[in-house]
Design a protein that fits this description.
mainly alpha
Length: 145
């Protein structure tokens, strides 16, 4: 599965005409960003939880990755999850087209940062900072060489 397809779908849905379109856009945008974050962390040789523990695990690691853009991406992923929860579970207040479009833009920004993090020296700095975070804060090192 190419998780970026969820982002393409979210873009189309955000331009839709119904609240169901906009709510679904938020949800798909979140899952695109979440799965791309999962792939990055797994590619850095960290264990990645499935289901409910996956989200906080990714947010904590990204938010403490030692790169300001990556740390912001972690915080933005948390914001996007809150928006996704609202879109999927709260029938009031109404979710608007601009809110759906803003969620898609937030996901696009997260993915752009994560894509940049897969390259060059930033990749090593992020990996090393995540190892230190796991060791010193979480006391649970999941990284494997």
């Amino acid at each position: 599965m190419n998780w970026r397809d969820f982002l393409s779908l979210a873009v189309r849905l955000a331009a839709g005409t119904t609240e169901a379109d906009w709510r679904t856009a938020v949800s798909r945008a979140y899952y695109a960003a979440l799965h791309i974050a999962r792939r990055l962390v797994a590619d850095l040789n960290f264990a990645v939880a499935r289901a409910d523990p996956a989200h906080p695990s990714l947010v904590y690691r990204l938010s403490n990755c030692g790169e300001s853009a990556g740390e912001q991406a972690g915080r933005d992923l948390e914001t996007l999850r809150r928006l996704r929860n609202r879109a999927d579970y709260d029938d009031t207040p109404a979710l608007t087209q601009p809110q759906g479009a803003a969620a898609v833009q937030l996901a696009e920004g997260i993915i752009q940062v994560l894509d940049a993090a897969t390259q060059g020296p930033a990749r090593i700095r992020i990996r090393d900072a995540m190892i230190v975070y796991e060791r010193d804060v979480l006391h649970d090192v999941t990284w494997r060489p």
